[in-house]
Specification:
With 403 residues, the protein is an alpha/beta fold.
């Protein structure tokens, strides 16, 4: 993590002849990566010029990872825009730097990246890879051998890489990044109209899950844990917010609910956005995020929950334990384990004082570690380093890779 979020960047006139071309998901998509790209673009950086080339491969969370002709045409369009942008900047004497969030460990998006980066990356003077999705470094071994040289050609030897948590540094190191940094994600403060409405203590404790409703986000583990609580006679109500992107997963989830007699205890809310989603956090008592998603790098929803003073129960997976402090802001349990998950939820359901203490500490941790202002300040330092050989990393936590 960049330890001095307020460090100023001082660039001479020569160093100002740079532009950072940000290729990233459209901020309208309600994913963690899209939110962070939006926060990045909405911030003003002194002496640093950002140019956004939006990626809009998916129309919604339920469309992610699914190939289509429209996505192929969109890929071609992005490559043409990158060529036009990079060449245009160079003709004006401006040195372009490519900022790109690599795909997670899934074949279709990796193939997309190989095409996009392979056909455009060499037009840029330097490359910044920001690993919002984790696991790419380990994925190379799963590729067919003929694709591995293309993988190395597309992803190899970036000038600078950014991980969202210390556990993600290996992704940049595996691609021989010259410099590999950690910048924790952050979120803005809740708007004034969002207020907690829950009684203290509430008559029935409300649990909340927010995320894509897929197996790897832990929804079946969560449903099994809730069934265990029901069998123990523990009262609760649960709201699951997010979209199913597979009809089989939805059918299986609803079958578990019927079989375990949870019909009146669980609500599938679908995808919520804006203040409606923020109010859902404020209207909950415990946040639960049992993810073991292959591309999970940070768990931004856990920060959103802590911002709303919610205690968090989450898994020991990738960067999540760097966000949620076990025994201080929540409870960390093993992934894929419904029993320990049920035990942790039951402990918090039965202890309103512990919920309040974890929620208070989580709120404090958000304010000191995970604000959007800190994120943008640290990314400003990243950008300054990327365009200036004279900007040192003395106040940054980094891992030096091969040049």
């Amino acid at each position: 993590m960049l330890t001095d979020a307020n460090q100023e960047t001082h660039l001479n006139p020569v160093q100002q002849e740079w532009a950072i071309v940000v290729v990233g998901q459209s901020p309208e998509l309600a994913s963690g990566q899209a939110k962070m790209i939006g926060y990045l673009l909405g911030h003003h950086y002194e002496h640093i010029r950002l140019i956004h080339v939006p990626m809009s491969f998916s129309n919604g969370m339920d469309d992610m990872g699914k190939p289509s002709v429209r996505k192929v045409l969109h890929l071609i369009g992005i490559i043409l825009v990158l060529w036009q942008t990079a060449i245009g900047l160079r003709l004006r004497g401006i040195r372009p730097v490519l900022y790109f969030p690599p795909a997670g460990p899934h074949l279709v998006p990796v193939l997309r990246d190989i095409v996009l980066l392979g056909l455009s990356r060499r037009l840029f003077v330097r490359t910044i890879f920001h690993f919002h999705a984790a696991g790419l470094g380990m994925f190379r071994a799963n590729l067919p051998r003929p694709l591995r040289p293309l993988f190395d050609w597309a992803y190899g030897s970036p000038y600078l890489t950014v991980a969202t948590a210390g556990s993600g540094l290996t992704d940049g190191q595996s691609q021989h990044g010259k410099t590999n940094l950690v910048v924790h994600n952050g979120v803005p403060e809740l708007p004034a109209g969002i207020v907690r409405t829950r009684m203290v203590p509430p008559p029935i404790v409300r649990l909340l899950f927010v995320g894509l409703l897929i197996e790897d986000k832990g929804i079946f583990v969560l449903l099994e844990a809730l069934a265990l609580l029901k069998a123990r006679g523990t009262e609760f109500e649960a709201r699951l917010i997010g979209s199913f992107n597979d009809s089989f997963v939805e059918q299986r989830a609803r079958a578990i609910v019927r079989r375990t007699d949870l019909d009146h205890d669980i609500q599938f809310e679908g995808e919520l956005r804006g203040n409606t989603l923020l109010q859902a956090y404020a209207d909950a008592d415990i946040f639960c995020f049992p993810s073991f998603f292959a591309a999970e790098s940070f768990g931004l929803v856990c920060v959103e929950a802590m911002r709303a003073s919610l205690p968090v129960v989450a898994t020991e997976w990738r960067g999540i334990p760097e966000v949620v402090e076990h025994g201080r802001t929540g409870l960390i349990v093993p992934p894929r384990a419904s029993g320990p998950l049920a035990d942790a939820l039951e402990r918090l359901i039965n202890d309103p004082d512990l919920r309040a203490e974890f929620g208070r500490r989580g709120r404090e941790r958000f304010l000191t570690h995970f604000t959007v202002e800190r994120f943008c300040a640290e990314m400003g330092n990243v950008f300054a380093h990327a365009i200036s050989s004279g900007f040192t990393l003395n106040n940054m936590s980094s891992s030096r890779g091969k040049a």
